[in-house]
Design a protein that fits this description.
The protein is built from six helices and 15 strands. Strands 7, 8, 9, 10, 11, 12, 13, 14 and 15 form a nine-stranded mixed β-sheet that branches. The protein has a six-stranded antiparallel β-sheet with strand order 2-1-6-5-3-4. Strand 1 and strand 2 form a beta hairpin. It is globular.
């Protein structure tokens, strides 16, 4: 596999990182997962927005090239070098350079891009439960990927042990927050609902795009704090991330949301 490491294309076996690497030592960084479909980057403006937000929150100085028009072309070229077809998953990893202890020696960034083949997303309804072993951790870092990963690792272990497709995470106060793989949405009385960022949920790329879409189309939307019982009254409940949307069919064995056709129009609007 070809990688892009600090702007240089190298083979995977050529990658060498020191033991003092701050991503390894302190989780001092973040990552961004990007979908390439048919030679185009899906939702690139939203990705750039979240990359800037993550870097600002961590105080990491990003290289200008990552925000240049050329960088998006470089990602496509890397996918071509790895001979991936019409659908690929790109992962951009960014961490603070240098060694040191908790006090950094520099705020400059180091970064790595990997590309893997992406599978066509599944669309069948999923069975979920309420997570019992982990809750979100609302903070200035919870809206982007990286720092809070152990929350999702623990929840995913529970998901596997319970034989479910996914779990809904609650915030510390017991409010709905998100799923392990995506943001959470539901529709009731022609209004779109989603948990507020104050719950510690990821400020997902699909979440950004969907809220932008509803604003442009003058739909009613409510971001807020909701208890799990709110889902029982919804016409449709679904999870969404950059790969697509999945309807939630049951919650802890109870059927919820019985109008899946609503999702088809949303997916068409989003370009899936």
């Amino acid at each position: 596999m070809y990688l892009l490491y600090n702007g240089q294309t190298i083979l995977e076996e050529e990658l060498l990182l020191p033991i003092s690497n701050r991503a390894f030592q302190y989780n001092d960084g973040f990552f961004e997962t990007i979908i390439l479909k048919e030679g185009k980057i899906r939702f690139w403006p939203q990705h750039l927005e979240r990359i800037r937000e993550a870097a600002d929150a961590l105080g990491i100085e990003m290289p200008a090239e990552l925000f240049s028009d050329q960088f998006s072309k470089t990602l496509l070229q890397l996918a071509e070098q790895n001979k991936y077809g019409s659908l690929a998953r790109v992962k951009l990893k960014v961490w603070r350079a240098g060694a040191g202890l908790y006090t950094p020696q520099t705020d400059k960034a180091e970064w790595l891009v990997t590309v893997q083949e992406a599978q066509k997303p599944l669309t069948n309804p999923i069975q979920v439960g309420i997570c019992q072993t982990s809750r979100t951790i609302p903070s200035p870092f919870s809206s982007f990927k990286g720092v809070n990963s152990p929350v999702y690792v623990l929840a995913s272990r529970e998901k596997a042990s319970r034989g479910l497709d996914d779990l809904i995470l609650l915030d510390p106060a017991g409010n709905l927050a998100e799923l392990t793989f995506s943001n959470l949405f539901w529709i009731k009385d022609q209004m779109l609902f989603t948990p507020a960022l104050a719950t510690g949920c990821l400020n997902g790329i699909l979440r950004r795009k969907l809220l932008q879409l509803v604003s442009q189309n003058n739909w009613d939307v409510q971001e807020g704090l909701f208890k799990p019982d709110a889902l029982k009254e919804a016409q449709v409940v679904f999870g969404g991330n950059v790969t697509g949307l999945r309807m939630i069919e049951t919650l802890d064995g109870e059927i919820i949301g019985t109008q899946p056709l609503v999702l088809e129009s949303i997916m068409n609007e989003l370009g899936f």
